[in-house]
Amino acid sequence: MAKHPVVLIPLDHYEQQSVDAAVARGLEMLGGVESIIGKEEKVLLKPNLLGKALPQKAVTTHFSVFSAVCKVLKEKGYAHVSYGDSPGHPTTTPEKAAEACGIAAEAKKWGVPAGEFNSGSVVHFPEGKACKSFYLCKAVQETDALINICKMKTHALERITGAVKNMYGCITGVNKATGHAHFPSSEAFADMLADLHRCVKPRLHIMDGIMAMEGNGPTSGTPVAMNVLLFSLDPVALDSVYAALVHLDAHMVPTCVSGAKAGLGVMEADEIEIVTPDGVLSMEEVQRKYGNPDFDVFRGVMKKHLLAKFMPLLPFLQHRPRADMKKCVACGICEQSCPVPEKAVHAGNGQKARYDYKKCIRCYCCQEMCPAKAIEVYRSPWNKLLGGK
Ligand code: SF4
Ligand code: SF4
């Protein structure tokens, strides 16, 4: 079987001309964008616009990477290009998120209009293994070819968010929280994401890993230089290379495991060809040359058989969201984001966040949406003893 290529271009800054050259080169090394998308097709660019954040916070895809993709497409004569994403929180519109991170200005410069991400409808997907329908944004339904321009970040539920997870922004606004309620575990959620990819069929994946996010991602983590751009037609292979770069076993990444199981792509080192400006390198060589063993990502393994023995204590032994009362501003966004109907966290109207762990499904929507970075994943000493280091 032919190996699935992932192109890695090293770059340690966001100076526009350098990013333009790196993106153009990465796409050429992948075979050229014309070999992937026809010029008459409607193209939708899907950066990560998770929230209203400045570009240096590494919450969103950097505007220079987005701009470089626009440049390649426009210079090659693609006439029907639009862009967008659906942020997680209902009060943050796609327009506001795109303006805050600089992507809206770049889109305007290249004459790339915003697609409709504020509304959508149910799309049935009977072939789905975990999920048979999705509430997809209108722009996603209307496009021929979606280009996924994701960000290299950590994620409380899935350990990392990359090419596979970024497609969740194709789901309209508040319907994202409903998805978390239906697929509460990291494995179930990843199975649903694999189906979402099979339904939407993004054509190309580009990862902005120049400045990544480690720690308390995907919103409240710390920017860290990883100095790479990754390109692939296979989102699972791309995320597996990302996992290797941060010294995380891809078998511990639910989106890689579910993606491979669903036939979305490949995750094993011997199935992936990593093409760099220095030629083809093995996963080990890439990890040695470009990896960061100190990248702050959860690498522990929960011993589920031990957890099962302590079922009545489970809500207290499991990892859980915890709010720092010094940082909490009592805005109530965590409560609004919580997909549990009776709410597992209460806050707002002057009251700081208060959790009910018996109701909490550990989806971490509250942690993702907290504007004050007040919520983190707490692992008790008992949890660490059970393997959750
Ligand atoms: S979202 Fe954050 S700041 Fe707002 S109430 Fe919840 S914990 Fe506090
Ligand atoms: S409290 Fe937070 S982690 Fe728990 S279910 Fe609600 S949003 Fe998810």
Describe this structure in a few short sentences.
Helix content is 32%, strand content 22%. It is an alpha/beta fold and 389 residues long.
Structural write-up:
It contains 16 helices and 15 strands. The chain has 389 residues and is α/β, with parallel strands linked by helices. The chain folds into 2 domains: 287 residues, Rossmann fold (3-Layer(aba) Sandwich), CATH 3.40.50.11440; 82 residues, 2-Layer Sandwich (Alpha-Beta Plaits), CATH 3.30.70. A hairpin with a 3-residue loop joins strand 6 and strand 7. It starts with a strand and ends with a helix. The protein binds iron/sulfur cluster (SF4) (2 copies). The site of one iron/sulfur cluster has 15 residues, from helix 14 and strand 14.
How many distinct domains? Answer: 2
Q: Approximately what portion of the residues adopt beta-strand conformation?
A: 15-25%
CATH-wise, what's the superfamily of the largest domain?
Answer: LarA, N-terminal domain
- Quote the distance from N terminus to C terminus: 37 Å
Largest sheet composition: 9 strands, mixed
Please tell me how large the radius of gyration is.
20 Å
Low-pLDDT ranges: none
CATH fold-level name of the largest domain:
Rossmann fold
User: Which percent bin holds the helix content?
Assistant: 25-40%
Structural class: alpha/beta
CATH class of the largest domain reads Alpha Beta
Instruction: Please report the number of helical segments.
Output: 16
Principal-axis shape equals globular
Mean pLDDT: 93
How many strand units? Answer: 15
Report the bound ligands by name, code or SMILES. iron/sulfur cluster
